[in-house]
Amino acid sequence: MCKKFHKPSEFLAFCIPSPHSLPPGTVMALIGVATAADALVTKFNRLPTEVQKEVELKGVWTWPSKYHEEGAYHIQYSFIKEAEQHCLLHSHPCDLSYPIAPWREGRHPGHTSMQVADRLVSTNVDVILQKHSDRRMKEKADVQLLVYTIDDLIDKLSTTVN
């Protein structure tokens, strides 16, 4: 089994031994924790035009955050422009055929997870809303729910693969 992490939207992909018809390492399921699809681009585009132009000239955007030890993220303008090419919410539907669980917790609005679910071609999508969770999912109940979700996905995949 392998796991892959993708930031900034914090998706967790699980690979399990797949049938011989699939290449090794094929992603078989996806769990999105604190789903913040397109958040960087959306937040940048909401800045006043003069601030956007200043960021373009400086080449760096300082995004304040209580989650960074320096109190802010320093994001290269080139990264923002690259991120615009990979936005999910305003693109063609995402053709994923494996089980997906976009996860929402207190910090990110639930509508983002619902928008991600709507963009997926797969009908095997569950959205779990945790209204009072911390984005780091560090409380025992949060971890337990995540483990139950992973167990459920493994069960679904075992049935599908076998």
Automatic annotation (TrEMBL):
InterPro entries: ABHD10_acyl-thioesterase. The keyword Chaperone does not apply. Coiled coil: none annotated. Keywords: Hydrolase. The keyword Aminoacyl-tRNA synthetase does not apply. GO terms for molecular function: hydrolase activity, hydrolyzing O-glycosyl compounds; palmitoyl-(protein) hydrolase activity. GO terms for cellular component: mitochondrion. Belongs to the AB hydrolase superfamily. This is Abhydrolase domain-containing protein 10, mitochondrial.
